[in-house]
Amino acid sequence: DSGVTQTPKHLITATGQRVTLRCSPRSGDLSVYWYQQSLDQGLQFLIQYYNGEERAKGNILERFSAQQFPDLHSELNLSSLELGDSALYFCASSPSGGPVDTQYFGPGTRLTVL
Amino acid sequence: ILNVEQSPQSLHVQEGDSTNFTCSFPSSNFYALHWYRWETAKSPEALFVMTLNGDEKKKGRISATLNTKEGYSYLYIKGSQPEDSATYLCAFMSSNYQLIWGAGTKLIIKP
Question: Which of A47, A90, A103 to mutate to probe the B interface, most B CBs <10 Å?
Answer without folding.
Answer: A103
